[in-house]
Recover the amino acids of this structure.
C-alpha cells in the first residue's frame, strides 16, 4: 500500500521518543534506530512500529525509534550513513549490503518451523501447463528483480532444467517477462489470465481469494531460500546489539508471540547463521549482482 | 515479510470450483483500500439505498472507513497527497444530488489515477515511480469490477498495461546491484492505454443518468446492454465469523447421537450454512443464516455500512438485501441468539411469528429475497434449529436457581431479582424472566425501551428475552443500545425508579452475569481441533445426506447440497494450516461437484460412483491430512 515517502525518510515515529528522520541523528549509543521496509500500508506499519518499538524500548532499556524507508535500497543507505542501526531486510538485499557496507546478520525469520522457505512457479490448473518446459513462449510475471522467491530462485529452476542458459537469457525462452511489483500482483496477473505463470513465494497463493486458490497450482519449487532477516550496521555497539537480539528472541515466548504480528508476521526468530546465506551469495554472483 | 496475509483483492465471492454458479460462504479477506477509493466504493453502495443515507455519504468522505488502516479520511488524505480539490463533490453532496455526486466522485478518482500516473512519468527515481504506480493501481481498483463486468477484453488490455508500466518503470536494486532503467517508450504507451480508457469512461463531462450506481464504464452504460456487476460489500463491511467462535450446543450431539444418522437434521444444518437459499445480493456475497447467527448464537462483529448502526446489528428489511421488502425505516436490530430456540417462541423481536417455520420462511423469502423453499427444506431447517440448546452452566440448576458454586454477590442479587418493586407494578424481574421457564415468559411487554414511531403509537412491546447465555451476547436491548449487563441494571433502576443502592446494583449485575454465564462458551481450538478440521467435519456431515437423497433420486435437494458444500469445502481449504494437504481437499471438492454435475444430467450411475469415491477419499483425508 503506497504512501509518498521521501527517499531519505519518511513518516514519524515513535517508541520511546518520536523522531523525524528527515533530520538524521548522529549515531549514538543510547538509542536504537530501526528501519522498516514498507510492504503494505505504511500507515498501518507506523502503528505496528509504535507498538513494537515501545515494547523493545522497555525490554532493552534504551529509547527505540523506528521509521519506514521507501524500499530496501533506502534502508541499506540508512545503515550505511548511520541514520539506522538495524533494518529488516530480504536475503538478497542483505548479501548485497553485507558486501558493500559490511552489514551484520542478527536474526532470521522462522516460518513453519524453519528459517527458510521456497519460491514456486504457479500456473492455473486449467492451463494445461504441467512442466517448466511447457512455458516456452508463454508469458510470466515475477515480483521484482531483487526478490529471492519472486524472481531469482524461481528463475534458477529454469536454468537448472536447461531451458535457460542463465540470467539475462530469460527473454529468449519466455514470451514476455513482467515484473509485477510484488507477490500479490504477480499472482493476480496469473490467476486472472493476464500471464500464464507467476514466480513467487511458496505462500503467495494465500494472497489470492479462496476461489482463486483452488484454481491455481504449482509446477516447480526452488531450493530452500534462507528467510528474511534483521541486520545491523557494522559499527553498532556490540552490547546494545546483543540486548536487541535477546529482546527479539523473547518474541518466541508464548506471552509475546502476538507481537510478531507487528513485524511482518513470522512465526518467530532465530539467531542468523551467516553461512546459511551462501546459496544466496552464489546466486547473486551468478546473476551478476555480486562481485 | 514472506508470508504476508494482506488478504486478496476481493472480487465478488464466487464458487471455488470450476463449475458455474455456487458461492462459498467463506468470505475472502479484502486488501486495504486507499481512503479515496474506499470513500468512492462506499458512495456507490450507499447511493443505491432508499432512502439514501446522506449523513453516511458525508461520513464516507470525512472519516476513515470502519477498520481502515489509515488514520485519516479521504478528504484529509486528498488534502495531504493530491492537488485535486474535492469542492465539486462536496457541493453535490450538500445539494443531495445523487447523479452529481456519482459524477463528481467518479471524476475525482479518475483524476487521482491520472495525477499519480503523471508522477510516475515525471520522476527519474524508480522508487518514487514505483510508489506512485502502486497508488494509481490501487485507485483503479475502485473501477475494476465495473470494467470486468462490462468488457473483459478491455479489462485484460488494461491489466496488461499495468503490468507493462510496472515492468518498464525501472527498479532501484540495492546499492546499484539489480537496478534496471526505465523504458520511457513502453511507459508512455502503457499509460496511454489506461488513460485513454479513463478519458472515455470515467473522465466524462456529462455522465448518463445512472439508475443504479456502479463502477460500470460510461461506454457500456451508453450501449444500453444489460450488464450485471456482481454485488459487493463496501469497505468497512465485516461478515467474518466472530472470534472466539461460539460453542455450538446441539441436543442430539450432547446425547452422543451422530448427526450423520439424522439426515433431515444434517440437511437443515447444511441449509443453515448455505447462501444458495437466499437471493442476490446475499447469495452472491456468501451470506447465510450462520453469518449472523454464528453457531446458533450471534455474530458480534457483523457490520454492513448503511445496514448496521454498530457491529452485531443489521437492518434486514432495508434497501440492500431485498428492495421489495424495504420498509424504508432505518431500524437495524441487534442480532438475537438462537440458543434454546424451541423454548423462546414466539419469534421476531415483538413475537410477530408464532411459528418458527413461518418466521424462517419470512427470513428466506422476504428478508433475503430467496426462492420459495420446498417443504423438505423447511422441515430440515426447523428440525435442525430445534436442536439448538442453551449453554450448560453449572452455577444454575435446571429450574433456574443458583447452585452452591455461585458467588455471594450473585446470591444477594438473586434475592433482588425476585423482589417485587412498585416501579415494576409490584412485579419482580423474575415475573417476566421466569427462572424455571428459561428466564422468559413468552410474552411481549412495553418496558419503554422503544421510541414510539408516531404520536400515540402502541408499538413498543417486545418479547421478553432469555437471560441464559447473555454474558456473551453484549450489547443488550433490541437495538443494542446498552453495552453491558450493568448498564441494563442501571437502566431499569433509573427508568423504573427501583431505588437500588450501589451495592444492590452490583449484586444484581453479578446475578445476571452468573445466570448468563456458561461452563464453556467458546469453541476451543488447538493443534488437533483446528478451524479447518471443524469445517471439514461439518461439510462432510452435510454431504452425508446424499446417502439418503441419492436413492430417492432427489435431484433438486442434491444439487442444492453439492452447490453449497463443494464450494465451501474448496474455499475452506484456504484456511488449512496443513498446506501440502490442500490439493487433496480441492480434489475432494471436485468429487462432490462431480456428483452434482452427474445429477444435473440425470446420470445416476456416475453420481453414485463419484459419491462412493468422495466417501472413501474423505475418510482417508480425515485420517491423514491433519
Amino acid at each position: 500500500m503506497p504512501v509518498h515517502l521521501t527517499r531519505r525518510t519518511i513518516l514519524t515515529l515513535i517508541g520511546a521518543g518520536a523522531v523525524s528522520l528527515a533530520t538524521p541523528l548522529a549515531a549514538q549509543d543510547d538509542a536504537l534506530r530501526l528501519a522498516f521496509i514498507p510492504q503494505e500500508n505504511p500507515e498501518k506499519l507506523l502503528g505496528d512500529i509504535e507498538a513494537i518499538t515501545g515494547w523493545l524500548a522497555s525490554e532493552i532499556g534504551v529509547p527505540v525509534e523506528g521509521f519506514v524507508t521507501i524500499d530496501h535500497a533506502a534502508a541499506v543507505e540508512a545503515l550505511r550513513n548511520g541514520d539506522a542501526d538495524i533494518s529488516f531486510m530480504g536475503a538478497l538485499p542483505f548479501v548485497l549490503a553485507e558486501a558493500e557496507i559490511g552489514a551484520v546478520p542478527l536474526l532470521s525469520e522462522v516460518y513453519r518451523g524453519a528459517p527458510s522457505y521456497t519460491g514456486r512457479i504457479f500456473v492455473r490448473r486449467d492451463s494445461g501447463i504441467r512442466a517448466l518446459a511447457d512455458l516456452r513462449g508463454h508469458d510470466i510475471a515475477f515480483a521484482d528483480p531483487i526478490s529471492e522467491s519472486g524472481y531469482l530462485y524461481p528463475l534458477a529452476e529454469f536454468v537448472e532444467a536447461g531451458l535457460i542458459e542463465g540470467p539475462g537469457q530469460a527473454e529468449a525462452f519466455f514470451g514476455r517477462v513482467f515484473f509485477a511489483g510484488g507477490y500479490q500482483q504477480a499472482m493476480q496477473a496469473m490467476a486472472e489470465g493476464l500471464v500464464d505463470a507467476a514466480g513467487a513465494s511458496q505462500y503467495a497463493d494465500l494472497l489470492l481469494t479462496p476461489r482463486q486458490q483452488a484454481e491455481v497450482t504449482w509446477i516447480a519449487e526452488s531450493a530452500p531460500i534462507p528467510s528474511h532477516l534483521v541486520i545491523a550496521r557494522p559499527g553498532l555497539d556490540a552490547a546494545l546489539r546483543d540486548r536487541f537480539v535477546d529482546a527479539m528472541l523473547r518474541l518466541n515466548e508464548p506471552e509475546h508471540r502476538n507481537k510478531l504480528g507487528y513485524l511482518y508476521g513470522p512465526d518467530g526468530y532465530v539467531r542468523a547463521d551467516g553461512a546459511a546465506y551462501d546459496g544466496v551469495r552464489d546466486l547473486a554472483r551468478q546473476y551478476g549482482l555480486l562481485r | 515479510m514472506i508470508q504476508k496475509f494482506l488478504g486478496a483483492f476481493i472480487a465478488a465471492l464466487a464458487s471455488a470450483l470450476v463449475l458455474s454458479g455456487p458461492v462459498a460462504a467463506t468470505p475472502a479477506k479484502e486488501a486495504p483500500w486507499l481512503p479515496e477509493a474506499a470513500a468512492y466504493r462506499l458512495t456507490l453502495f450507499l447511493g443505491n439505498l432508499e432512502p439514501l443515507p446522506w449523513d453516511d455519504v458525508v461520513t464516507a468522505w470525512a472519516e476513515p472507513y470502519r477498520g481502515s488502516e489509515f488514520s485519516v479520511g479521504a478528504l484529509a488524505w486528498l488534502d495531504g497527497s493530491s492537488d485535486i480539490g474535492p469542492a465539486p463533490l462536496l457541493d453535490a453532496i450538500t445539494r443531495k444530488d445523487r447523479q452529481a455526486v456519482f459524477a463528481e466522485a467518479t471524476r475525482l478518482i479518475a483524476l487521482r489515477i491520472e495525477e499519480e500516473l503523471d508522477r510516475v512519468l515525471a520522476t527519474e527515481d524508480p522508487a518514487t515511480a514505483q510508489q506512485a504506480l502502486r497508488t494509481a493501481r490501487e485507485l483503479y481498483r475502485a473501477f475494476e469490477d465495473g470494467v470486468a463486468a462490462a468488457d473483459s477484453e478491455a479489462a485484460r488490455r488494461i491489466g496488461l498495461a499495468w503490468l507493462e508500466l510496472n515492468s518498464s518503470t525501472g527498479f532501484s536494486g540495492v546499492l546499484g546491484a539489480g537496478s534496471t532503467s526505465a523504458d520511457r517508450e513502453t511507459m508512455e504507451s502503457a499509460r496511454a492505454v489506461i488513460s485513454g480508457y479513463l478519458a472515455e469512461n470515467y473522465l466524462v463531462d456529462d455522465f448518463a443518468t445512472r439508475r443504479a450506481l456502479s463502477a460500470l464504464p460510461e461506454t457500456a452504460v451508453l450501449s444500453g446492454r444489460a450488464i450485471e456487476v456482481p454485488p459487493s460489500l463496501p469497505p468497512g463491511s465485516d461478515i467474518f465469523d466472530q472470534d472466539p467462535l461460539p460453542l455450538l450446543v446441539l441436543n442430539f450431539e450432547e446425547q452422543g447421537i451422530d448427526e450423520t444418522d439424522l439426515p433431515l437434521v444434517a440437511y437443515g444444518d447444511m441449509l443453515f450454512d448455505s447462501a444458495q437459499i437466499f437471493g442476490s445480493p446475499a447469495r452472491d456475497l456468501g451470506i447465510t443464516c450462520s453469518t449472523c447467527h454464528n453457531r446458533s448464537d450471534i455474530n458480534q462483529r457483523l457490520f454492513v455500512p448503511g445496514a448496521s448502526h454498530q457491529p452485531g446489528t443489521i437492518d434486514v428489511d432495508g434497501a440492500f438485501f431485498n428492495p421489495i421488502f424495504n420498509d424504508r425505516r432505518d431500524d437495524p436490530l441487534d442480532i438475537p441468539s438462537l440458543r434454546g430456540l424451541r423454548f423462546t417462541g414466539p419469534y421476531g423481536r415483538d413475537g410477530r411469528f408464532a411459528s418458527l417455520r413461518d418466521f424462517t420462511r419470512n427470513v428466506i423469502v422476504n428478508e433475503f429475497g430467496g426462492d420459495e423453499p420446498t417443504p423438505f427444506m423447511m422441515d430440515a431447517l426447523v428440525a435442525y434449529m430445534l436442536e439448538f440448546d442453551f449453554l450448560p452452566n453449572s452455577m444454575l440448576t435446571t429450574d433456574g436457581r443458583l447452585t452452591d458454586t455461585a458467588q455471594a454477590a450473585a446470591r444477594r442479587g438473586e434475592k433482588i431479582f425476585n423482589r417485587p418493586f412498585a416501579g415494576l407494578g409490584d412485579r419482580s424481574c423474575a415475573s417476566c424472566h421466569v427462572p424455571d421457564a428459561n428466564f422468559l415468559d413468552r410474552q411481549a411487554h412495553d418496558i419503554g425501551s422503544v421510541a414510539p414511531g408516531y404520536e400515540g403509537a402502541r408499538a413498543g412491546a417486545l418479547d421478553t428475552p432469555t437471560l441464559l447465555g447473555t454474558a456473551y451476547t453484549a450489547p443488550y436491548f433490541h437495538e443494542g443500545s446498552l453495552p453491558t449487563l450493568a448498564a441494563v441494571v442501571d437502566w431499569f433502576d433509573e427508568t423504573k425508579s427501583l431505588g437500588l443502592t450501589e451495592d444492590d446494583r452490583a449484586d444484581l449485575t453479578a446475578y445476571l452475569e452468573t445466570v448468563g454465564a456458561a461452563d464453556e462458551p467458546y469453541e476451543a481450538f488447538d493443534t488437533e481441533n483446528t478451524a479447518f478440521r471443524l469445517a471439514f467435519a461439518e461439510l462432510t456431515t452435510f454431504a452425508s445426506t446424499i446417502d439418503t437423497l441419492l436413492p430417492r433420486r432427489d435431484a433438486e435437494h442434491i444439487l442444492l447440497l453439492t452447490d453449497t458444500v463443494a464450494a465451501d469445502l474448496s474455499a475452506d481449504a484456504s484456511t488449512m494450516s496443513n498446506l501440502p494437504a490442500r490439493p487433496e481437499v480441492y480434489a475432494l471438492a471436485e468429487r462432490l461437484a462431480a456428483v452434482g454435475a452427474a445429477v444435473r444430467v440425470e446420470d445416476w450411475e456416475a453420481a453414485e460412483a463419484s459419491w462412493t469415491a468422495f466417501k472413501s477419499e474423505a475418510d482417508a483425508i480425515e485420517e491423514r491430512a491433519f
User: Anything to note?
Assistant: The two ends of chain A are 33 Å apart (CA to CA).
